[in-house]
Write a structure and sequence with these properties.
Largest sheet: 6 strands, antiparallel
Radius of gyration: 24 Å
Structural class: alpha/beta
Helix content: 40-55%
CATH topology of one domain: Carbamate kinase
CATH architecture of one domain: 3-Layer(aba) Sandwich
Strand order of the largest sheet: 10-11-9-12-14-13
Shape: globular
Number of strands: 15
Distance between the termini: 43 Å
CATH class of one domain: Alpha Beta
Number of helices: 16
Length: about 475
């Protein structure tokens, strides 16, 4: 979104006089870095307005953070917009939203100074309020940019700002698009939608794709398109070389789900579910390569068995060994409950007679809290943690390719230690567990062995 000016004439307007810019709906996320300032930094965890407000010790650090948000928004839209009148309108928009949020948070603090009200009871709504500021700003600025270029763009704010009505996501979308004429208007819609379901509570930062997919289903779209900064490729070009990677071109929602599990989301799984139910194909394109059709994702199986992508994810292995576990129920349920309580995402798991191992995506600090609980529950168990990586080879159908054996052979020849490996009967992915230091090399080795040299072609017969 921060490069939206570069995309105005190609992606948004399409650049050619014979092209109709209408009959489309754009759902936008916040400009780069704004949501980090509003909530917390997604990678480093550095607190933003929300985190500072939640832990406020009366020094009102969140006020300074909110000012940083306003300044950051101003810097961005002053770079995107050329016209002074448009800049003034954007400045006023930011001022009104930021001051409104500031007053709201002050009032909430004042209310919770009384013993009958607890700030913790309102933090979910506070997170929703703050997250919507970023999307509203980017949608408004994009609308101004397009209107100045002669496009009849329409700002559609689903954030619920100063709207006292309670409504579901479906109702919010219906009301927002009510009266929009797609034949002569180009709606620019906020990725955040305020609704009774609570998108932030359910999906956290994946909410914009959920809004996007529900709008596609609501309108009966012919196709849903996600514009990214890169093509959906067979591996990270930085690891295997830009000349070695291949654009996927065509895959299915099963592969998209596996990518989501590996932290490489083509689309949020719940958003994909909405599109699948509505029988709407998804296309992932490179926004800066507008002539390329990108990668189509639908429910079609592959014509031949093949590995389509190799990717990796850093995880923490949480292993519980208990000699007396054999034949005793409850160990796994206790571990799962502890992980759920600390909001730890499980990537994969394995077990045998006396050992259960969960590979989870979280910090070592959080895992230590889980370990403390489990040690209290099972004082005689041996519980260990280890920082590792999962390197996964994924495809619509891997039948007959001997991916597990060929992958192990390739990594042995490359001198890469494989701690564990597994393949499920569904034959859509094979996972290799390696030391973190070896993960990047493992991606390159597997890409060379399984994609650059794909092995025998296996025909897939239709059912």
């Amino acid at each position: 979104m921060s490069r939206i000016r570069e995309l105005r004439d190609t992606l948004l307007i399409r650049g050619r006089p014979e092209d109709d810019p209408y009959h489309r709906i754009f759902v936008v996320s916040a400009f780069g870095g704004i949501t980090n300032l509003l909530l917390e930094h997604k990678k480093s965890g550095q607190p933003g307005v929300y985190a500072l407000f939640a832990n406020d010790d009366n020094d009102h650090g969140w006020l300074d953070a909110l000012t940083l948000v306003a300044n950051g928004m101003g810097e961005i839209h002053n770079q995107v917009l050329d016209n002074d009148a448009d800049r003034a309108m954007a400045d006023e928009f930011v001022r009104e939203r930021i001051e409104g949020a500031r007053s709201c948070l002050f009032d909430l603090q004042r209310l919770c100074s009384y013993g009958h009200f607890r700030l913790s009871d309102h933090m979910g709504v506070t997170r929703e309020l703050l997250s919507g500021l970023g999307e509203a700003h980017s949608a408004f600025v994009t609308t101004l940019l397009l209107q100045r270029a002669g496009v009849n763009a329409r700002f559609v704010d689903l954030s619920g700002w100063r709207d006292e009505r309670e409504c579901t996501l479906e109702q919010r979308i219906s009301r927002g698009l009510d009266g929009v004429d797609l034949s002569c208007e180009l709606p620019i819609v906020t990725g955040y939608a305020q609704c009774s379901e609570g998108l932030m509570r359910e999906y956290d930062r994946g909410y914009s794709e959920v809004t996007f997919s529900n709008i596609a289903a609501h309108t009966g779209a012919a196709e849903a398109i996600i514009h990214k900064e890169f093509h959906l490729s067979s591996a990270d070009p930085k690891l295997v070389g830009a000349g070695a990677v291949r654009k996927l071109g065509h895959t299915n929602y099963d592969v998209a789900d596996q990518l989501s599990n590996m932290g490489m989301e083509a689309i949020h799984p719940n958003a994909a579910k909405s599109l699948r139910r509505a029988d709407i194909p998804l296309r992932v394109t490179n926004a800066f390569d507008p002539e390329d059709p990108g990668t189509l994702i639908d429910d079609q199986p592959g014509e031949t068995a093949a590995v389509e992508i190799v990717t990796s994810l850093d995880v923490v292995a949480l292993e519980l060994f208990e000699q007396d576990m054999v034949g005793v129920k409850g160990y796994d349920a206790t571990i799962l409950e502890a992980l759920r309580r600390h909001n730890v995402r499980i990537v994969t798991k394995s077990s045998n007679a006396n050992t259960i191992t969960h590979h989870v995506e979280t910090s070592l600090k959080t895992v230590r809290r889980v370990v403390n609980e489990l040690e209290a529950a099972y004082p005689s168990a041996e519980i260990s943690t280890r920082a590792l990586s999962i390197v996964s080879a994924i495809g619509r159908d891997l039948s007959g390719l001997h991916v597990l054996r060929r992958g192990l052979d390739a990594m042995e020849q490359a001198g890469i230690d494989v701690i564990a490996a597994q393949q499920t009967p569904r034959n859509v992915d094979v996972q290799f567990i390696t030391p973190r230091a070896s993960a990047d090399d493992a991606v390159g080795v597997l890409h060379e062995a399984l994609i650059a040299d794909p092995g025998p072609a296996i025909q897939i017969k239709a059912a």
